[in-house]
């Protein structure tokens, strides 16, 4: 891992791409992946937007965490990064844990979130116990055991392109992965979804096992005022990787309608 451990709420490791004068879209990755999770969407996004991708603690070469952190800490780190970059407002799109960060950001700093896309995520990721068990497993044995089963969690059985994404998980710091598990264990925005004011698109993979449409995506779409739900068939948890065409089309259509930025 690069650099010293990062404290909770520190601005994340990031990359800016796309037209410098275009409206900004922040892209959040999932547990066990890096900012490269969003590569399939970048060509279409860069036709109209500038993208800001970031890595979670201990992921993608980012420093591991210096101690425990919450999803809300990750959202606060993004606010600090937007401040550093002089960006008053941005759209936000996130997958799984990255989607939870977007939910927290929209609740903690609503004036900064111009538009929101929540992909294969949830207002609550189940009971805390299994997350703490997974954190203990990776601290004890490394990320190998969870990487060995990742393809089955992330993709439908017929998908043949899993290996680059599994490789992201194998390169993840055990402490970074464990810390993110513990953050997910604590996250519960269910009772506050009605406070979100950003225009919101919820995207779900029809075959998503970790966050299926029923009980997860539908709760987001039903709880956030005015939110729309798109369910993508033939996709599981990393729908944007498995079915990039329909996912990218849904995201760009939503952004076209909600976030064209000043002067566009």
TrEMBL record:
NCBIfam families: protocat_pcaD (TIGR02427). Gene3D superfamilies: alpha/beta hydrolase (3.40.50.1820). InterPro entries: AB_hydrolase_1, AB_hydrolase_fold, AB_hydrolase_sf, PcaD/CatD. Residues 23-128 form the AB hydrolase-1 domain. GO terms for molecular function: 3-oxoadipate enol-lactonase activity. It holds the Pfam family Abhydrolase_1. It comes from Actinomadura livida. Transmembrane segments: none annotated. It comes from the Bacteria. One of its GO terms (biological process) is beta-ketoadipate pathway. SUPFAM superfamilies: alpha/beta-Hydrolases. PANTHER family: MONOACYLGLYCEROL LIPASE. This is 3-oxoadipate enol-lactonase.
């Amino acid at each position: 891992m690069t650099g010293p451990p990062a404290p909770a709420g520190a601005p994340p490791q990031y990359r800016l791409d796309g037209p410098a004068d275009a409206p900004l879209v922040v892209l959040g990755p999932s547990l066990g992946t890096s900012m490269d999770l969003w590569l399939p969407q970048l060509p279409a996004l860069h036709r109209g937007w500038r993208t800001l991708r970031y890595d979670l603690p201990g992921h993608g070469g980012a420093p591991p965490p210096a101690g425990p952190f919450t999803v809300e800490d990750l959202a606060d780190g993004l606010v600090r990064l937007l401040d550093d970059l002089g960006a008053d407002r941005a759209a936000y799109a996130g997958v799984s844990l990255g989607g939870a960060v977007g939910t927290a950001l929209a609740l903690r700093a609503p004036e900064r979130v111009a538009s929101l896309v929540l992909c294969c995520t949830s207002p609550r990721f189940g009971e805390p116990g299994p997350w703490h068990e997974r954190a203990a497993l990776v601290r004890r044995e490394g990320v190998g055991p969870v990487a060995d089963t990742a393809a089955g969690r992330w993709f439908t059985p017929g998908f043949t392109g899993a290996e680059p994404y599994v490789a992201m998980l194998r390169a993840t710091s055990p402490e970074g992965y464990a810390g993110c598990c513990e953050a997910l264990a604590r996250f519960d925005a269910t009772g506050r979804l009605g406070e979100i004011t950003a225009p919101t698109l919820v995207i779900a993979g029809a075959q998503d096992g970790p966050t299926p449409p029923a009980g997860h995506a539908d709760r987001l779409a039903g709880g956030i005022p005015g939110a729309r739900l798109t369910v993508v068939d033939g996709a599981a948890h990393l729908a944007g990787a498995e079915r990039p065409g329909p996912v990218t089309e849904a995201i760009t259509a939503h952004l076209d309608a909600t976030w064209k930025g000043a002067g566009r």
